[in-house]
């Protein structure tokens, strides 16, 4: 019996729904059902029964839940203690200088804000730069690493700089956020094609990687670009346009996993799939820079611990 299967079981029990648990755990309903059937066979019991439109625990399922809660709690406590050991072992009291692309500064750091603060990883000064500026800063010795986002298709271009090493921390699929009024119907399985997107009003964040994606996507497919309503760094205005059904915008799978939208909007997968990575661009001097090396190790440990369910589906 694996710990993760007990975590799946507890999430289903709390949600009283396989579909809702599937969304929270980043696992297909088919995969979740398969795991529960295997757990039932292993224990020789039935865990759930139908109740109205949802499900509820059987008596045996309730017994398992009480034990599973304690097992999962102890497992989480263990991971928490081991994670804190990693942080303390590599920790440094000095303020670290971090060079990061605009997406990392304005999206990733905001999403991880509370976690960074909790574990002391907000003890840094941040310089927002484009990728080429970070490479130049590493060349000049101003920093030994940068936190960058890059389209999957462009990772090989970094081979032009053999002294640099790129290590992904997160892999993300680009998605589209739209109101129900603007989402094309029918939209099977929550999928949006580039052709459908080309006919919608668009508002999106002015960011180099996203700009490059939009330019390529429509040029390569010989489609007209969508009507651009807003292209700026005013993220609140972009969200307001989406909520009022005046535009659609881009999101990504990691943002969806952390931020639970309270408004009545849909999150649609683009077809064909478009991927990008967020990771560490490391110069040869990082191994000799104790403070910056410790920061990178801590950040990697934090993401691996706090977002392990996401990483189990979207493998780096």
TrEMBL record:
Keyword line: DNA-binding, Transcription, Transcription regulation
Domain HTH lysR-type: 1-58
Single GO MF descriptor: DNA binding
Entry keyword Transcription: yes
Pfam family, one: HTH_1
Coiled coil regions in record: none
Any GO CC annotation of this UniProt entry: protein-DNA complex
Family: Belongs to the LysR transcriptional regulatory family.
Official protein name in the record: LysR family transcriptional regulator
Source organism of the structure: Gordonibacter massiliensis (ex Traore et al. 2017)
